[in-house]
Amino acid sequence: MPEQPPLTVSFTYQYEDFFQPPNAQRSIFNAFSGWTVVIVGVLAIGLLIAITETGRVSINSQALLIFIPIAMLFIFAVHFSNRRSARLHRQQWESHTTHRTWTVTFSSEGITWQSPLSLTRESWALYCDHQWTPYGVYLHTSTTQHILIPARAIPRDVLPQLRELLRAHCSQSQGFPVLPPGPTA
Predict the structure, then answer these.
(1) What is the sign, positive or negative, of the torsion defined by CA atoms of 53, 57, 62, 63?
(2) Is 0.70 surpassed by the pTM of this model?
(3) What is the pLDDT of residue 104?
(4) Residue 34 phi/psi, 5° resolution?
(5) What are 88-118's pLDDT values in tens digits?
(6) Is residue 47 situated within a structural domain?
(7) How many CB atoms lie within 10 A of CB 94?
(8) Rounded to an integer, what distance in angstroms lies between the CA atom of residue 99 and that of residue 26?
(9) What is the DSSP string of 101-131?
(10) Among 52, 71, 96, which residue terminates a domain?
């Protein structure tokens, strides 16, 4: 393979790189699991109130008049608690994360990570695989750890060269060679 010139990308990590924005598509389970809990909780509370008020399991208009305001308060509390929790999570991430600009250089020798506070050179042997997603490229250092290079940081003109470089140096095929079995006695 001919020697390619180093490829350089610069970026600053953003909250959306690691956490999906609220309007991003979610799985059906995630989208409805919270509301399923709310509905089941409201129904259980309403049934409990109906049984307590009437002494039997039938739901009449008097039980519904008690049930509807409590159900509305419960839904209101859960909805605003979820919104507040999401807002606090983002505020905490933004206040505790160092917002450094990273310059990442990919070359045939490895990857160089540079920020205003550090310079790290890593050989390709550190990375066992890579994965392209709509959010960027994940460089796997093990089966459970990875590093994200955001898609927004990779210029379109560099993309084919970066794909080829990662395919050549950072794939699952690396590792110890598989040798044929030796002679048996």
Answers:
(1) positive
(2) no
(3) 94
(4) -65, -45
(5) 888 888 887 667 789 999 998 999 999 988 9
(6) yes
(7) 11
(8) 27
(9) EEEEEE-SSEEEEE-SS-EEEEEGGG--EEE
(10) 96
